């Protein structure tokens, strides 16, 4: 008897893997290793204790301890509420605002700077598929005079972006994050060319043979979003307007996101100064500008469909 064949096109387009998958005739059987995500976090109080009417970078008397959003050092940093607006300047537009504001804090130890963004989100979204998107947040800095908060239109900007799917990669492991059995738990595959091991052929363990990697076209093309391994959930990018977003091959940023009590708290850490001409350089005793953006995956936010802010002035 012939069985129906289902091509899982969305997954293969995402990872660049060619082939088809056959649905296994055992309803309810899941091959996915069920791991809790986000991982259970120790019950901690919100560290944003004092509200200010302007954004301030607090100077520490000791070194930054870590990228933990719930480090006790954050109790020293007052927060500023940044109003957000729906992106309705270019396509694709966001028709309805779902995150009206975020709390922003900043710390520096004279060598590094850390930014903490927190906002309400009842559903942590860490997977992607057709019509399914992950949560994300970004910070933007002007690299040239005249750059606008609209992706640097009229100039050039640097962007640091965090994504929940990358955080999930680090929290529970790549093969159980965006592998096909996690998104389509009842699938079956007869063959993956040159793969080693047994079904469900976890990535990347079963694809060590260089011939097997040939079918991961996005990986072979050097697309940074197709990387099997990731050490940070932060990506550094530059832009000079809409449609120009470009990955920076060398990143100096680190960070971490924690979801707890229906809120995301995400920390971005970066050296004040670097030797990369595409990096924003943080200088003491000078007024500077920063902008923010947040994506709510469960509300269909992706790409230009986002909440964003105007430039916010701050001073080290």
Quick structural summary:
By secondary structure, this protein is mostly beta strands.
What are the key terms here?
single chain; 316 residues; mainly beta; Immunoglobulin-like; 8-stranded antiparallel β-sheet
Description:
With 316 residues, this protein is mainly β. It has a domain at 47-172 and 226-315: Sandwich (Immunoglobulin-like), CATH 2.60.40.1190. The chain is built from 5 helices and 18 strands. The protein has helices at 9-15, 164-172, 180-183, 210-213, 217-220, and strands at residues 5-6, 21-23, 51-52, 57-59, 79-83, 85-86, 101-108, 112-120, 136-142, 157-163, 187-188, 234-239, 246-247, 254-260, 263-271, 287-295, 307-308, 312-315. Strands 6, 9, 10, 12, 13, 16, 17 and 18 form an 8-stranded antiparallel sheet that branches. The longest helix has 9 residues, at 164-172. It starts with a strand and ends with a strand. Mean pLDDT is 84; it is low at 1-34.
Low-confidence stretches: 1-34
Mean pLDDT: 84
Number of helices: 5
What's the oligomerization state? single chain
The CATH topology name of the domain at 47-172 and 226-315 reads: Immunoglobulin-like
What CATH architecture label of the domain at 47-172 and 226-315 applies?
A: Sandwich
Give helix and strand order, one letter per element, not per position: EHEEEEEEEEEHHEHHEEEEEEE
Question: Given the C-alpha coordinates, what overall shape results?
Answer: globular
Strand content: 25-35%
Distance between the termini: 71 Å
Q: Kindly name the structural category.
A: mainly beta
Quick one: CATH class of the domain at 47-172 and 226-315? Answer: Mainly Beta
What is the helix fraction of residues, given as a range? under 10%
Rg estimate, integer Å: 21 Å
Beta strand count: 18
